[in-house]
């Protein structure tokens, strides 16, 4: 048995920028413990497992420690692999996921993802949240997955230095901080922290833009926006809110391809 494995940098056209994801192409189902073990071995913010199911593909996402219900950059990476490896006919892919059916379409050099919108609602901040971030908040809100904290400006976003131990005590998948951009090429900037699921800072978080897109569309009065996630690696997400959906567009570049060894299929080893 041979299982192909790829590493793709998502939301960038430049290798070693954006957000790296592993993509594992399966032909048969594997048990959850094995999937989690592979993701822990990859030790990236997300490992995606893709398996054909009729005309669609099953898609699951694992951090090094848990399975998550939604991930943008690993979906983009998965679509990039399926397109470049010619595993699909046509320009559209449908994924069956824990967040419903998601689609990916080729748009010239970009791939467009159709995701559920997740606009935030204003909420009282948990006791640990703002002290853990070490920022002054202009707005605090949340959706079903994450907290969002708006700060004064781009400088505050870039200079934030969270206390990840304290932040991991917040009962949430992750926390994004955001502000308008100082660069006219972008509408807003953000960073995303998720120590509770094993990721102190995620380089570029597609699913966070399901929240950031509606949030900034309302404030800036724009139907299409460009977000710049200003992590060390950095990345760009084009966002177009459409009611209860959000279109996310970005580029991706492959940096590694290989196969799992036969020994990987003997896990867990018996003593």
What features would you describe in this structure?
A hairpin with a 5-residue loop joins strand 15 and strand 16 (235-242). Helix content is 19%, strand content 39%. It is of the alpha+beta class. The mean pLDDT is 95. It is globular. The protein has an 18-stranded mixed beta sheet that branches. It has helices at 32-42, 72-84, 129-133, 154-159, 164-167, 209-220; strands at 4-10, 19-25, 47-53, 56-62, 67-68, 92-97, 100-107, 110-116, 121-122, 139-142, 146-150, 174-180, 188-194, 199-202, 225-229, 235-242, 245-250, 252-259. It contains 6 helices and 18 strands. It starts with a strand and ends in a 12-residue tail after the last strand.
Main traits of this protein?
271 residues; alpha+beta; globular
Largest sheet: 18 strands, mixed
Number of helical stretches of at least 4 residues: 6
| pLDDT < 50 runs, ≥5 residues | none
What structural class is derived from the secondary structure elements? alpha+beta
Question: Which percent range describes the beta-strand content?
Answer: 35-45%
Q: Give average pLDDT, whole number.
A: 95
What's the layout of helices and strands?
Layout: E1 4-10, E2 19-25, H1 32-42, E3 47-53, E4 56-62, E5 67-68, H2 72-84, E6 92-97, E7 100-107, E8 110-116, E9 121-122, H3 129-133, E10 139-142, E11 146-150, H4 154-159, H5 164-167, E12 174-180, E13 188-194, E14 199-202, H6 209-220, E15 225-229, E16 235-242, E17 245-250, E18 252-259
Parallel strand pairs: 2-3, 4-6, 11-12, 13-15
Antiparallel strand pairs: 1-2, 1-18, 3-4, 4-5, 6-7, 7-8, 8-17, 9-10, 10-11, 12-13, 13-14, 15-16, 16-17
């Amino acid at each position: 048995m041979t299982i192909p494995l790829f590493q793709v940098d998502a939301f960038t056209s430049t290798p070693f920028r954006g957000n790296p994801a592993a993509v594992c192409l399966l032909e048969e189902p594997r048990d959850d413990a094995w999937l989690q073990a592979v993701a822990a071995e990859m030790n990236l913010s997300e490992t995606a497992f893709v398996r054909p199911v009729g005309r669609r593909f099953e898609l699951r996402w694992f951090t090094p420690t848990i399975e998550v219900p939604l991930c943008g950059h690993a979906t983009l990476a998965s679509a990039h692999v399926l397109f470049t490896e010619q595993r699909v006919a046509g320009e559209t892919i449908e994924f069956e996921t824990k967040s419903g059916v998601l689609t990916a379409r080729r748009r010239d050099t970009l791939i467009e993802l159709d995701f559920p919108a997740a606009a935030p609602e204003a909420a009282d901040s948990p006791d640990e949240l703002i002290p853990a971030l070490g920022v002054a908040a202009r707005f605090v809100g949340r959706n079903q997955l994450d907290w969002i904290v708006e700060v004064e400006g781009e400088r505050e976003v870039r200079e934030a230095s969270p206390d990840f131990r304290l932040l991991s005590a917040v009962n949430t998948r992750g926390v994004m901080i955001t502000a308008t951009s100082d660069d006219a090429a972008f509408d807003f900037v953000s960073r995303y922290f998720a120590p509770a699921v094993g990721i102190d800072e995620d380089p570029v978080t597609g699913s966070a833009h399901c929240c950031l897109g509606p949030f900034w569309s309302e404030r800036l009065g724009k139907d299409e926006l460009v977000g710049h996630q200003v992590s060390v690696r950095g990345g760009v997400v084009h966002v177009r809110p459409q009611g209860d959906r959000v279109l996310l567009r970005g580029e991706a570049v492959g940096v590694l391809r290989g196969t799992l060894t036969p020994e990987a299929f003997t896990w867990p080893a018996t003593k």
